[in-house]
């Protein structure tokens, strides 16, 4: 194949025209020369307009020539859609083209389900299911929903797509089960009883040390001081002890008076004498408490 350098993309570097292999070729050979020849030898025909999203992405990695979508795929799709529209009409041809692409994706899914990674298979499955959902939604909008041929087409394609999706799901589940089986951690069940060897401590590092401690005779030397309090007691300790004893004595005396007052009365007893007795006991408690408070005030 001969290269036409005049139509090749070029750039100026250091004042010299250099071919730019990363850019696309000028389409003037087709749009100007070939179309003029066809127009001269043929007749003008107004064909239905087709619009395609080419998604011409340019991915430049480590190579000099960037990656682009294959132009032949675009030409093949346009030619197929054009032929179906000319043979079946614009509306039926459009539907037939979409159903044909659905069959193509279903066949691709069947062929690549075992070779591609699971996430790529899931992406292709989702793309196919989304295309069929759009066709089902458009079925209610277009005028072909009552056409027998269209119903037969859609039923046949739906069966093919459904089988492809089910097969892809089964293969993905099998791949996922295999992955879990390989990567899952095997846990051994615990025994009901521990073996006798597990109840013994070997102590390989500290056994000699413990044996040395047990074989050593320790001399019990008491380093503590006298346990008994000094005799006679200190004045502050003695005062605290006397105050505590006196407080307990008052509490016991008060409890005794309360128990005497709450005791059930004897019908044969003289109530006046009982009241006098309780009065004397209460006065005794109050006088002793008064004496204790005075002692505390003088001590402070």
Q: What does this entry look like structurally?
A:
Helix content is 60%, strand content 3%. The chain is mostly helical. The chain has helices at 28-41, 71-88, 90-112, 118-139, 148-183, 207-215, 235-262, 271-299; strands at residues 10-13, 16-19. The protein is built from 8 helices and 2 strands. The longest helix is centred in the middle third of the chain and has 36 residues, at 148-183. It has 3 domains: 1-44, no CATH class; 70-182; 234-299. It starts with 9 loop residues before the first strand and ends with a helix. The mean pLDDT is 78. Helix 3 runs antiparallel to helix 4, helix 3 packs parallel to helix 5 (148-183) and helix 7 runs antiparallel to helix 8 (271-299). It has a two-stranded antiparallel ribbon.
